[in-house]
Amino acid sequence: MAAAPKNIDPHGSSIPAKRRVNPWVIAAVVSIAAFMEVLDTSIANVALPYMAGGLASSLDDASWVLTSYLVANAIVLPISGWLSIRIGRKRFYMACVVIFTISSFLCGIAPSLGMLILFRVIQGAGGGGLQPVSQAILRDSFPPERLGAAFAVYGMVVVLAPAIGPTIGGWITDNYQWRWIFYMNVPVGILSLLLVSRLIEDPGYLTGQLKKLRGHMSIDYIGIGLLALCLGALQVVLDKGQEDNWFYSPMIATLEVIFPVALVLFIAWELTRDKPVMDLRMFKNRNFAATAAMIFAYGVVVYGMTVFTPQYVQAYMGYDAELAGKTQLFGAALLILLMPLTAKLIRWIEARWLIGVGFLLTALASFYVTTNLDLQISFHTAAMYRVWLSVGLALLFVPINTASYVGIPEEKGGEVSGTINLLRNIGGSVGISMVETMIARREQFHQDILSVHVTRARQAYRNVTSGLSADLFHRGLTQPQAASQTTLRLYNSVVTQAYVLSYIDLAWLIGVMCLLMIPLILMLKQNNPKAAVASAE
């Protein structure tokens, strides 16, 4: 009888052939848990006031429900590739699904805010490995020429989840209870676990690495500790900085010192290790360094603009959370339609040219916002902001992820996925923090400028106040009441106009940042469009 066929892994060892599973089935399986994990980064935002009320806490204290999840998530993301090599990718992925599912249930039954925050830390740690491992599985499941299509599917998950999170969260909390935003993860997690256990297998090269490490596995405790300290401090600063007024808060000021010190120590330590927990030497590859900067900027734009429009229409146009979330749905739907087209384009056009066009179109969409933003925009106009933005973003996610693997050894695929996902998430945190901080600071700047022109020395001011006071007097107010109301209305008008100008400044900043990314395409190596992740020519 003929022997069972064998495959040869990249390291030369033979392994028994495994049954072949359709890669699109694998893509669907790994997208399930990844979608729920990304969704959980945004869905809880809307439910925060309900959590605070239900657990008898202040809104400021309840915001740690969001921060704790992001901190734990950020710590696990970059070491997911390292953990996959040491315990097996499939085993690590299933462990993450189990932790995420159980902790989601525990979040739902949490009796106090302290317990909820604790369970959110565990949930964030479990969810942190799902994104990068999902992407690594896709990379190993598809042939090079079809990898762009696989990343397009993954991109739909990453972009759609935060876009619909506020809408789903608002609907659940309005019609049921905030605890159901966590309970909904349980059946999805169980389904994902069953499918992964039956359909996903570790690739040959990873199995070979695991065998080599068995019996003499080293753990970089110092590296993990420094990384956790560095990312934890950064995430708390980004999430709570504006709320606590940055350096005026002793905690934020302390963490702002801890972060750079821990970062320098982490870099120095990891560069001296033979088997680092995070291989920083990959940044010597200028292609990888450029794509890392680009995916960071992509995260800033996606998450920053996702907050931009809903926050604006809620603050100044009276939209509720659900309606504000709907302004993002049309752009998200367009992005889903365009990403498969990008996957086809990347098989004919080099990734770097698609990236350049994508950043240019995104910049133009941001500048378009600055010419049309006012207090009279309709729902259609607000929704179109995200639609125009989606045209450029659709040309970024797939090409950047594809280009990030060019010239990187196959066994480093897990570390590439972890680092790229980490930088995208940190970029998202920076984007959200930038929106909150810049709006607050630029509003004060513009208010000071506008206030100079609102004085009795100006004829226009005297004309407006006399006309408004007379109108209010004829409506039944006394002369002092009319004068007081006139002053109050003018002040409110100045404050509102200052806020609008601060949003315009923010849109300009995002547009300029996108333009600054375009020269980086010159650092990207030429890739073969016929084989999306072939070695650089």
Descriptive report:
It is a single chain. The chain is an all-alpha fold. Helix content is 74%, strand content 1%. A hairpin with a 5-residue loop joins strand 1 (6-8) and strand 2 (14-16). The radius of gyration is 25 Å and the shape is globular. The protein starts with 5 loop residues before the first strand and ends in a 20-residue tail after the last helix. 47% of the residues are buried. Residues 1-19 and 532-537 have low confidence and may be disordered.
- List segments where confidence is low: pLDDT < 50 over at least 5 consecutive residues: 1-19, 532-537
Strand-and-helix sequence, N→C?
Answer: EEHHHHHHHHHHHHHHHHHHHHHHH
Biggest sheet: strand arrangement: 1-2
Looking at how many chains there are and whether they match, the oligomeric state comes to: single chain
Biggest sheet, in brief?
2 strands, antiparallel
Radius of gyration: 25 Å
| Termini gap | 44 Å
Mean pLDDT: 80
Strand-pairing-aware structural class: mainly alpha
Q: What general form does the structure show?
A: globular
DSSP strand content: under 5%
H/I helix tally = 23
**Helix content range:** over 70%
What is the strand tally?
2
